[in-house]
Design goal:
By secondary structure, the chain is of the alpha+beta class. The chain has a single domain, classed as Immunoglobulin-like, CATH 2.60.40. It is 25% helix and 42% strand. The chain contains two helices and nine strands. Strands 1, 3, 5, 8 and 9 form a five-stranded mixed sheet that branches. Strands 2-4-7-6 form a four-stranded antiparallel sheet. A hairpin with a 2-residue loop joins strand 6 and strand 7. The longest helix has 22 residues. The radius of gyration is 24 Å and the shape is extended.
């Protein structure tokens, strides 16, 4: 009698475990690591330029023409104003004044006149695959720069 009851409990436990596994959402999505080059390499926060430009390359097996430019963000907050495929890279332009205001606040908050800062570009491919890449630039405010 105890063995029958034990087998019944075991069967229901296995069935419950399998059901939970089948009904669980899939694990974390795959993220492609992109190579990103942000220009200018040294950003004068007093500049009056119009654009911060990012060049994006995807690893072998992926094509930049598959990037959904509407999903691209700089620092998860700045949308591109313009994009164009140039050879095997996607060139994205962000409004310089908006990005500079954000960077100036960060530089000022750190109490520095010059700093290395890592900027991240994220987005998705047309099939929904995420991509991400970072670049480090120098930001400086000339009156306080070293």
């Amino acid at each position: 009698m105890h063995i029958k009851r034990l087998l019944t409990v075991l069967c229901f436990s296995v069935l419950a475990f399998v059901s939970i596994q089948v009904l669980s959402p899939p694990g974390t999505a795959f993220t492609v690591t992109a190579t990103v080059d942000i220009k200018p390499d040294t950003l004068n926060l007093n500049m009056h330029g119009k654009w911060i430009t990012a060049y994006i390359w995807l690893p072998e097996g992926f094509n930049v023409s598959d990037i959904d430019a509407a999903t691209v963000l700089l620092q998860n907050m700045f949308e591109p104003k313009w994009s164009n495929i140039e050879g095997n890279s996607l060139m994205i332009k962000f409004d310089a004044s908006t990005v500079i205001n954000y960077l100036w606040d960060r530089l000022n908050h750190m109490g520095l006149g010059r700093a290395y800062i890592e900027l991240t570009i994220t987005g998705q491919l047309m099939d929904g695959t995420d991509f991400e890449g970072t670049d480090t630039i120098i930001i400086m405010n000339p009156p306080f720069a070293e």
